[in-house]
Each structure stands twice: as C-alpha cells, then as structure tokens.
Automatic annotation (TrEMBL):
Belongs to the helicase family. DinG subfamily. It comes from Aquincola tertiaricarbonis. The lineage of its organism: Bacteria, Pseudomonadati, Pseudomonadota, Betaproteobacteria, Burkholderiales. Keywords: 4Fe-4S, ATP-binding, DNA damage, DNA repair, DNA-binding, Helicase, Hydrolase, Iron, Iron-sulfur, Isomerase, Metal-binding, Nucleotide-binding. PANTHER family: DNA REPAIR DEAD HELICASE RAD3/XP-D SUBFAMILY MEMBER, REGULATOR OF TELOMERE ELONGATION HELICASE 1. SUPFAM superfamilies: P-loop containing nucleoside triphosphate hydrolases. It comes from the Bacteria. Residues 189-441 form the Helicase ATP-binding domain. This is ATP-dependent DNA helicase.
Length: 772
C-alpha cells in the first residue's frame, strides 16, 4: 500500500555533498579518550555559562572579535564552528570554559578535548586569514570567583594544519560510512511497503494524516481508537516521509515501558520485510534500569565499565551501527558487555548515530533532556511521535514541579559542617518564620518571598563550594538535598502564572513541636516549557485514544497555532458494545455508602445474565474494597480478585493472569491506576466493565487553586472543565477501552452515575458508542 503522493508538495532540496559536522562534535568523536568520569562537581548552569562568557568578553576591550565563525571543506567534510574570541592585533584566539571548584580537579582528558577543539579553531583561522602562526589561549573561568586561568600556547599554521588533517582523517571514514548509510536508508524507505499488506479500518486515515503533517512540517493531534494499530500507523508514514523531508532522526516517545515494546516490535517487523531499510534503532532507558554496577560511582577509579570507556567506545560504536535489527535494552546490554563499556552511556553515545530512538517522554521534554539537547547541538531535523499523548499533561507537570520538605532540611543541617551548616541554619530560620506566619495549613502565595529565595540560593552556593573542594566527602542526604534545592531554585527563576507556589504546613510530633512546612513550585500549565520542544521539531504527531476536547490539549501542551487535529474513524461498530448508564445511582462522596448496595446488585445481575470476565473500576481503594466485600456477601458465587496498593510486577501479572479465555469473575481496580490503560485482554478474556465514578480529581485546596488559575487563564467554564471534568472522563474512556480490542470482540460497559446521562458528559464519550 502507498501513501499520498508528495510530488506536488514543496520538497527541500537535496543536502550538499560534503558531510556537515560541527567542530565540537568532530572533536568529541576523535579526541575523547580515557575514562568516563562523572564524579559530581557542581558545574555551571547553561545561564551561568553564558554569563561567564559575556564577562570574559567584556574584559577584553577594543580589538576583540567575539563569536568568530569559522568553516572549511576538508576531506569530504563541511566543518563549521564558532570560536569564542579573537584579537587580531595580538594574534590571539581564545576558547573559554566555565567551571566551579578546584582548577586541578578538571580531568586531564577533559582538558585534552578542550585543547583539540581550540587547535581545530586555530587551524581554520590560519587557513581562513593566511596566518603563519597564532597564539592559542584556553581560558578557564571560575563562575563563583570570577577569576580566569589562561593556558597559552603558540602554534605554527603548519603544525595546526597537520593536527586538523589528523582529526579529519579520523572522522572521514566514519563520515563516508554515515553518508552511505543515509543514502541506503533513504533509498529503501522510499520503496518500503506496508508490512501487513493492507491497512486496518481507520489505520490508513491515521497514516495519511501523519504523512501529510510531515510533508508540510506541521504538528498533528490525532485521536485514534484502540485496536487500529496506532504504533505502526504512525511509524510507517513518518519513515516514508523521512527521505523527502530530510528527517535525520525519529524519536518515538512513550509514557510506559509497554509502549516502548510495541514500538520496538513494529520496528523489528519492518526490519524483517523484503528490501527492509537498514534502520539503526535503539532504546534508551532510565539509568537505574541500565546500570550494571549500582553500588559504584561513574568514574574509572570505581567502576570497571567507566575505566577506559572512551578507549573502548569506538569498537563498541562500530559494532552497534552494524548490528542487524533494533537494539532494545537487553541487546544493548549484551553488546556493551562484549566491549566492557557502560550500557547506559553507550546508549547515549549511540543516540547520535541512530535513525530511530525509542524512549520515555522525559528524554525529550524534561528540562535537561538528552535528546532535545543533542538535537539542538547537532542541528538535527527531527520527526517526533508521542504515544498515549493524553498522559503528557500530567507527566510534564511533574517534570516542572519541585518540592522541598522542611523535615529533610532539619535532618541534613545536622550533617553539615562549616559554611553549609551556617547557610542551612539561616534557610531553616527563614523557612520556619514563613511557616509560622501562614494563616492556614495550606496557602498559596502570588510571589516567592525574597528572603526565602535568597536564603535558598545562599545554601545552594555554600553546598556547591564544599562539593567543589571535597566532592567525595559530603553526606549522601546533603547531596540529595542539594540536587532537590537546585531543581527548586531553577523553577523559581522561571516562575509565572503557569505554576503555583504553595506551602503545606504540618505540626510535628509532640504537643510542643514547632510547625514545619513543605514548599512546592507546582506546575499547572506545562505549555511554556513544552512550546520550544515542539518548535524544535520538523514535525510532531501526538496520538491517543483520548484527546478530547482538542482545545484542552492545545492550551495545556502549548501546541503550535497551526496544529492539525483529527478524530480517526473507529474500526468498531455500536453493535459490538452495549453501553448502559446507571442513572439511578450517584457515586458522589456524600452518596458513597448508599451506592454500594445497588452497585453490588448491578454487578451480580450482569454476571448472572452473562458469566465471564469483568473489570470493576472505582475511585479509591477504600471504595473498591467496600464494594467487593458487599458483592462477596450478597453474591458469593461470583469469583473476584482485587488490585492492592503498591503491586509489583509479579503481582500485576498474577492479577492479569486471572483473565483467561473462558474464565469468569470480576477484577476490582482503581480508575486511573495500572489496570485502567495499557493492558490488552482481547476476546473473552474480558467481556465487560463497570465504571463506578466519573473519575473526577478530588475536591481539595490544591485542585481548587488550579481551578481558579485555569478560569483566569482560559475562561470561567474552562476552570472546572480543565481541572475536573476532562481529566476525569479521560480515565473513564481509557478504562472502558479495555473491553473492545478487536473487530470481533463484543462486550458491555456499565457507566455507574447519573451524571453520565448529562449532555456535557455524553459529548466527551467516543462517538461510536451508543449509550442506553
């Protein structure tokens, strides 16, 4: 099957013949050697680095040329870079590196890399301006002390040209291989056929919209029902569009591990097809899941996989890019073991050379996300796919939310000594005064108090100074507090009406205990943080079975104004699903006790009418347990099994294993929990669901402040809808979507609450449902 012909669309011209590479990127490839050394030192932030460079430039005076652009075509490479500054009269070229801590603590292999970068700049400048020799100054700027440590060398143009030629030679073979791979990849993608022969109903519509969005460089918001094959329906068309749109990388982002596996399975299927494209596919996982030696630190003196990492990396990298088929976590682990390198950092290196990266949302959307940083540094043209995108609102809120607990501060200040202890004591005093002054146990403030922000920054600076001087000698709890405080402080810098600053006060143990408080910068609208991430892609497709209403996601995610929204037709028919609304039952908090008996009766009657496997969803564990107990009392003939708090992987599998083909019973689960989405129980493994709630978030102080903020930002009606109604109904539709998974499935859904009969609620339910 083919997709729409893009011949009539505006198509970018072919890339120039030379292989484009930044000076920094080439040197990282050719000049890195020795150990992987990630001993923690409080390195400057990006903003501090920018300010440090500006300070140095301001000191240079007349005749100083900052941000000097340099380029050359050499050995099949188009080499480009920007040196920090040049004084022509003095014949001095400078490269500035910012740092904290002791100068002598900068690792030797880091300095070697910095020198390599500066020498390449020097060679390019001599070549560009016909200089016979040049003075090179590697200037290390201490951001706290505002001092410079220059390392100066004089080199002839001839020596620098020889050094440049060596670096080009080291990279040229790799560049030729990359160009050959790209040509083979794009050629195969142009003739790639859909692996299933024909599209499912709805799948073709989805694929066509993804393809058109890619050709037009647009963002697509696609609501597509479960069961049409959304993973292949998005991957295939974006890969087909890649050659014509010169897409360098495709990032497939998921909220859960099960989504990553579906993507890897789809890519494996494409790899097995006749004439399959030679796609390089890797999976990036969290560090704690990939680390082979969690008891060791990430440096050569501690971890054997860090020792000599960059010396062994070239062989591991070469083996990885020649591997057949995708490289999921386990395959990467085996390859890393064969070359005695760290699998986690090998995956990060391979992200530079992969065609498709499968990862969690945070690897692109988080404030310090690897994939976004690499895309910006390398100038990649990126195609982004966001799976189960309804989860992105809450996940992004969590990424840009930070909390500090005063109880932790009280503990860590006892561990500290010297300057950090004094700064922490001051922070504690300021914090305690703020907590004591609050008129209520929960309070939001329009602005962060200046004295608190100042005390927090002083504590961070004091701990940072101690870390720089003795990184191995600081207590772990103090270090963890430092990380949390730094994250909190950075969010304070970007604080605005997209977030709340709130204080939750609690009384400590004992009658005379002083109050303590939890401070929170709580993101409500992640749009300002996500907008630059969407803008940085060539095309983005966000897809899910529940993306209604469109405006809710446009507003909260900050999608571009020209985003295209589509509601993909369902492959299912109303006759497959009986939707029953229990208008005689209210599940409101004040009616919970009265609702239990009619709910148990309804479940018993449905089971008697059609025995089989059912899921029953409730708003809390307490509600769930009380309903299950009454059902057991009134209908002991109905088998049942219950979700428990904190279920591990084995317990989760055991719960799902009860849903056997031909089995019978009721599984009780919490709406919005681990069984409310992302599980697949086709056929008679699941024939119905009872949903005893609208899934509305609880009415509490935090949510009420959110409602007020949403109303002020988006309109009075949207205040309630954005805070309560839309998030709640999203959970309902996801849970109900467990019942019909294939075109041959049949089942029943009982929506238990009179509010399901309201027009404003009914319009948020899938259009193919026919509710009674």
């Amino acid at each position: 099957m083919s997709l729409p012909d893009a011949a009539t669309e505006a198509s970018p011209e072919a890339a120039p013949a030379p292989y484009p590479i930044a000076v920094r990127a080439m040197c990282e490839f050719t000049a890195k050697e020795g150990d992987l050394d990630l001993r923690f030192t409080p390195s400057p932030t990006a903003q501090e680095g920018i300010e440090g460079h500006a300070t140095v430039a301001a000191r240079r005076g007349a005749g100083w040329q900052a941000e000097l652009s340099l380029s050359a075509e050499l050995g099949g490479l188009l080499l480009r870079g920007r040196a920090d500054g040049f004084n022509a009269a003095r014949g001095r070229l400078e490269e500035v590196k910012t740092y904290r801590g002791e100068f002598d603590a900068i690792p030797a292999n880091h300095r070697a890399l910095h020198w390599a970068q500066l020498k390449v700049y020097g060679a390019l400048l001599c070549r560009q301006q016909g200089l016979a020799q040049i003075e090179l100054a590697l200037v290390y700027f201490h951001v706290d002390k505002q001092t410079e440590t220059p390392l100066v060398e004089v080199h002839t143009a001839e020596a620098l040209a020889a050094f440049l030629a060596l670096q080009v030679q080291r990279f040229a073979d790799w560049a030729a291989q990359e160009q050959a791979h790209r040509a083979a990849r794009d050629g195969a993608l142009q003739s790639l056929a859909f692996p299933h022969g024909s599209f499912r109903r709805g799948q073709r519509m989805l694929a066509e919209n993804v393809y058109r969005a890619a050709v037009r460089g647009r963002c697509l918001l696609a609501q597509a029902p479960t069961g049409i094959g959304k993973t292949m329906g998005t991957l295939f068309p974006l890969l087909k569009a890649a050659p014509g749109q010169r897409i360098d990388k495709l990032f497939f982002l998921t909220a859960k591990g099960s989504g990553r596996q579906l993507a890897l399975d789809a890519l494996q299927l494409l790899a097995q097809a006749d004439g399959a494209p030679p796609l390089r596919v890797i999976e990036i996982t969290a560090r704690d899941k990939a680390c082979e030696h969690p008891d060791k630190a990430c440096h050569g003196d501690s971890c054997p996989l860090a020792r000599g990492f960059y010396d062994r990396l070239p062989a591991a990298r070469a083996a990885a890019v020649q591997a057949a088929g995708p490289l999921p976590r386990e395959a990467l682990r085996e390859l890393a073991a064969a070359h005695a390198v760290c699998p986690y950092y090998l995956a990060q290196e391979l992200a530079r050379w992969a065609d498709v990266v499968v990862a969690d949302y945070n690897h692109y959307f988080d404030g310090s996300a690897l994939l976004h940083a690499l895309a910006q540094q390398q100038g990649w043209r990126v195609g982004l796919l966001v799976d189960e995108a309804h989860n992105l609102v809450d996940r992004a809120r969590a990424m840009y939310t930070a909390e500090l607990d005063q109880a932790r501060l009280q503990a860590v200040r006892h561990e500290a000594t010297g300057l950090p202890k004094r700064a922490l004591n001051k922070l504690h005093k300021t914090w305690a005064a703020l907590a004591a002054a609050q008129p209520a146990d929960y309070q939001t403030l329009a602005q962060v108090p200046d004295d608190l922000a100042t005390a927090l920054q002083q504590a961070i600076a004091a701990i940072a100074e101690q870390l720089a001087e003795q990184p191995e000698g600081i207590a772990s709890e103090l270090l963890n507090f430092f990380f949390d405080a730094t994250h909190f402080a950075r969010l304070l810098e970007s604080f605005g009406d997209h977030s709340l600053f709130d204080i939750t006060r609690s009384q400590g143990g004992g009658a005379l205990a002083k109050p303590s408080a939890v401070l929170c910068v709580r993101n409500l609208v992640p749009a300002p943080f996500l907008q630059p991430r969407f803008a940085a892609t060539h095309t983005t497709t966000l897809f899910s079975a529940t993306l209604t209403p469109t405006q809710f996601y446009l507003d909260l995610l900050g999608l571009p104004a020209d985003t295209v929204a589509v509601d993909v037709e369902s492959p299912f028919e109303a006759r497959q699903l009986s939707v029953q609304v229990a208008r005689h039952i209210s599940t409101r908090w004040q009616h919970r006790d009265a609702s239990l008996a009619p709910i148990a009766r309804l479940i018993g009657q449905q089971y008697a009418q059609r025995p089989g496997n059912y899921l029953a969803f409730f708003s809390s564990f307490d509600y769930l347990q009380r309903a299950a107990a009454l059902l057991a009392e009134q209908h002991p003939e109905v088998p049942q099994w219950l979700q428990a708090r904190g279920m591990g992987a084995a317990e989760r599998e055991a719960f799902l294993a009860r849903f056997q083909e031909g089995g019978a019973g009721v599984g009780f689960a919490v709406l919005g929990g681990q069984f409310g989405e992302g599980i697949d129980l086709p056929g008679r493994r699941l024939i119905g669901a009872f949903i005893a709630t609208l899934g509305l978030p609880p009415l509490n102080d935090t949510n009420e402040r959110m409602r007020e903020r949403m109303a002020a930002r988006f309109g009075k009606t949207q205040g309630y809808d954005y805070t309560y109604l839309y998030p709640g109904l999203q959970k309902v539709v996801q849970a109900a979507g467990r019942v019909i998974r294939t075109p041959s499935d049949e089942g029943v859904i009982h929506l238990i609450d009179d509010r399901f009969g309201r027009a404003e609620v009914r319009r948020l339910l899938p259009s193919w449902w026919s509710a009674a």
